[in-house]
Amino acid sequence: MKPGGKDGKLYSITEGAETSGGATSKVPASGFYKVTGVAASSSSFPAPSAEQIAKGARAIRVGDVVHLWKGQDLASGDKIKKLDLTLISFVKDVSNSKQKTSYDVSTQENLDSGIREYITSAFTDASGTINGTIETDSEAQRTLLNQFEAITVDDGENYAIYPAKETNQDYMLSRRETNIVGETAIWEHFPVTVESIQMDKPLDGEQNFNFNYKVDGGNNPNVIYYKVKAEASA
Q1: Is the whole-model pTM more than 0.90?
Q2: What span, in angstroms and rounded, lies between the C-alpha atoms of 76 and 19?
Q3: What is the pLDDT of residues 112-165, one digit of tens each?
């Protein structure tokens, strides 16, 4: 059964101010954060259970993008940066292809018995296409187009030309948005390099677009599942 809520939205990410842990320090607001520091001992970040560790899970570390709840303790040495989300578009379709590299490690014994043995790399290449709608003349549209061509802006006072430049884009993709207590929300931290873009003719309001991307594996892409809970009153 699909839970209630809205899904299929693409948000741009802006890093906010850093919050440092201490004797009375707590997470200031519920939302997504980038972990910038972890206490060497006695970190207050939630930890995996023994059962989860046995299945290969690890604890939170620097660089991870996580969802935290308002009021959670932050020990001295724990540091986080709030990730502010700005809605860019409503996503119609996201194709995603992942691929690992296989290596032939067959021994002579394998070959004599008529089989081959393979291992796969620990890393995955991921790429695909996002189709959706974007607001005409929005900052998000300008940022995307500036990947491929110069952008000229005359705001009535100033005249600025931004040369085309390739920059990695940091997004959050909602796969299941819900605020209903007990349900599980699903979001994807989606840092990508845009390889090509196609837009329909200019429209008044929303504009259809699609762009091909490769996932930036160095910026901690991950799918985030969290169970919605009732927040304590301030």
Answers
A1: no
A2: 11
A3: 677 777 666 555 677 888 887 877 777 777 887 888 889 999 989 999 999 988
